[in-house]
């Protein structure tokens, strides 16, 4: 298990970002989807939790085979997806990722939003007070992103919002900019397979960090698109975009189903909220398992039948002549 805490600041308020994060997630999912790959929305519905109150539950399937490294593509099926379940009780959210093909793999993310510049070192005291973790600050203006994802229009160093007047951020902007908010994310990656654990967990954290950086840059760069939206308007945008995304990857309506009782996240059921969900199956994936019943090789006959000594003469075997008689033991 590898635990890290990420802190991402933005020139927004927590109240403003309530709309922005919904808009960003929907648009980003649509842009990253293509035929056969992307984000399929399975469920998206209101949900009430006795502790956290009213929220929204979503379930998605993330198809990403082509985005896996070559060593991972060698051991996963061609049709490969990760299940995402999210409980949004803004300004607190829980997101879990699992994969039926890799039952020992999971990602658990808890997010809290506050109006500060990432200065709250005790924000996860209830969830992970005694757990050792690395704290990573992500700067949406100055941190480098993978070149293939770079767009100048989404670069906070160049973008300036017409509706808010914010933007063109420079190094050190977090120390003086107002308003400012921080997205605190406690991310637990778990892949308990001997020989692969460290490599996979480190790789997943690198991917998570890139996604967080890109997503928060986009949320700010798209601020003029969502800034004046109401909650009803962003929910309608979310619904229309999700249906378009499902069609884009080849999933046709009815694609979004409604369930009266969605599953609770693992943090609400019984395990501590900082712990990743535990898959129902603990069996190793097939490619890592030793077959229980191996078929017996038949390179040789199972039984060997020897010729009757009395009939050896008729067989014309090498070294055996018709005059030869079977040997008998001598009687004393």
From TrEMBL:
<keyword id="KW-0813">Transport</keyword>
<feature type="region of interest" description="Disordered">
    <location>
        <begin position="268"/>
        <end position="332"/>
    </location>
</feature>
<dbReference type="GO" id="GO:0008526">
    <property type="term" value="F:phosphatidylinositol transfer activity"/>
</dbReference>
<dbReference type="GO" id="GO:0035091">
    <property type="term" value="F:phosphatidylinositol binding"/>
</dbReference>
<feature type="domain" description="Phosphatidylinositol transfer protein N-terminal">
    <location>
        <begin position="1"/>
        <end position="243"/>
    </location>
</feature>
<feature type="compositionally biased region" description="Low complexity">
    <location>
        <begin position="268"/>
        <end position="285"/>
    </location>
</feature>
<keyword id="KW-0446">Lipid-binding</keyword>
<dbReference type="InterPro" id="IPR055261">
    <property type="entry name" value="PI_transfer_N"/>
</dbReference>
<protein>
    <recommendedName>
        <fullName>Cytoplasmic phosphatidylinositol transfer protein 1</fullName>
    </recommendedName>
</protein>
<dbReference type="GO" id="GO:0005634">
    <property type="term" value="C:nucleus"/>
</dbReference>
<comment type="function">
    <text>Catalyzes the transfer of phosphatidylinositol (PI) and phosphatidic acid (PA) between membranes. Binds PA derived from the phospholipase D signaling pathway and among the cellular PA species, preferably binds to the C16:0/16:1 and C16:1/18:1 PA species.</text>
</comment>
<feature type="compositionally biased region" description="Basic and acidic residues">
    <location>
        <begin position="322"/>
        <end position="332"/>
    </location>
</feature>
<dbReference type="Pfam" id="PF02121">
    <property type="entry name" value="IP_trans"/>
</dbReference>
<dbReference type="InterPro" id="IPR023393">
    <property type="entry name" value="START-like_dom_sf"/>
</dbReference>
<comment type="similarity">
    <text>Belongs to the PtdIns transfer protein family. PI transfer class IIB subfamily.</text>
</comment>
<dbReference type="GO" id="GO:0005737">
    <property type="term" value="C:cytoplasm"/>
</dbReference>
<dbReference type="InterPro" id="IPR001666">
    <property type="entry name" value="PI_transfer"/>
</dbReference>
<keyword id="KW-0445">Lipid transport</keyword>
